[in-house]
Predict the 3D structure of the following.
Amino acid sequence: MSSVEETVKSPRQERSAHGAVWDIFTAFVEFLSSVKLGVVLLVILVILSILGMVIIQQNVQGFDAHYASYTPAERTVFGALGFFDIYHSWYYNFLLLILSLNIILASIDRIGTAWSYISSPKLFGTAGFLKRQIKSEEAGLDGDSPQDVAERVSRAFRDQGFKPVVTLSEDLDARSRMQLGIKDEGSEGPAYVFGQKGKWNRMGAYIVHVSLLTLFLGHFVALQTGFDADVNMIPGEVTNEIQLIEINLDQRERYAVGLPFTITCLEIQQKLIDPNGPIETFNTLDWRTRIQIDDPDYGRTVADVSMNNPFSYRGYRFFQAQTIPVGNARTMEIQMTPQDGGSPFTIDLERTKSVKLDDGTVVAHEAFMPDFTFNAQGQPDTRSADYNNPVAILQVTPPGGETERVFAFAANVSDDIPVGAPKLGYKWRMTDFEKSPLAHVLSIKYDPYNGAFIAWYWGGFGLMGALVFVFFFSHRRVWAMIGDRKPDGTYRVIVAGDTNRNHFAFEKKFNGIVTRLTGRPPVDVDNDRESD
């Protein structure tokens, strides 16, 4: 081969190679943007999500007992496939990524066509175009001119909720006249009436797409930048640490994580259905934890965290999670009977608080034992978590005297027993108390960018609203072409209509137009039709 031939053929071969690469790339992008691929990905993700609900996930309470029920082979296989943490598995996230890419490319590919229905509606068409719509009807209408008939048609459109637009043949440019077959520019050609309603429904699919992407992205950001933790809330205690939870199958490891602020537990409360019943979940209306946050940057904040009222602060969201169900008391009613025979009186004492009597004596709460006993070291303790032998342990300081420990039992205790003997001139007894657990456990979700909030409230509710907008509304279009005058003096009019969904409701509207124009119901015609 000569050097001239090589010089001539080389650029062609290079262009051919570039063309082949471009064709492969184009085919790949078309595949990624195909609706079929999106449907397949959605089906696979739904199946995996159902699988994640059937198989208890490792972050669900009670997973360890469920995990123990599997055979060693099942644990190995399911663990290797990621079935115990399916929503965080690499393949689940990969499918979400491909689906997101599919949604973006499909939207870019098709949004131009959808937008054209809004920006450039088809105001007129040939008789053949009209007869190919899903509904069409031909009739003869009286009138002095095409404009007169067009006004009559406009009123019929308006009565059915359509906004009419009239186009006369003399208003058309040369190209439009040629497309419609109007050859003589000076002659009186047809008039056209167009009406539509619900045009923005064409954008409904893209609102669904945006909502889905918001849902995906919000949860992805929340998972990548946030974490789950918990903290024990015991009244009076202050902490600047929370316990980060790391889950690996049936193993839960906790790590202390510092906070940029301190949390003080002011009070915990458990609202019981039966105040005399146990402090169990089945007997509970609500849990409430009152906390105080001291932040060097933002000052002091006091908040209540209840079962249906979480609290958010600087990306940290506090929820009620569980309790440490060892019996305790939120408030106590202490009866004090003077040893000298005076009338007994009562004081109300709150957990971790103190009360000052008229004589200057200070009665402070030290502890509460639901089932009092002394341990091996001779210190007050509880045998169980139940209220079998409740006692309030108090620190009492008389004016100018030494602080003494006092035991106020709920039961009548003999004066001969040291812990039941009168002290500081009074016989002490706890006559009533409001049951409360030892501590509440608050679950904390750290989400610095509010990804979960955006996902649920913008993505989730936006998706539901978009689906309602897409499936319960439709874009309805109607046309009328007023043609030549017929031998009987009427004008030949073709009325046609099209809708992107809900054909039955549209048919009623279309029939109303035809009946208004002709005075009779329309005649069904079996035409070969294709949608615009």
Notes: The longest strand covers residues 316-338. The mean pLDDT is 89. The CA atoms of residues 376 and 496 lie 95 Å apart.
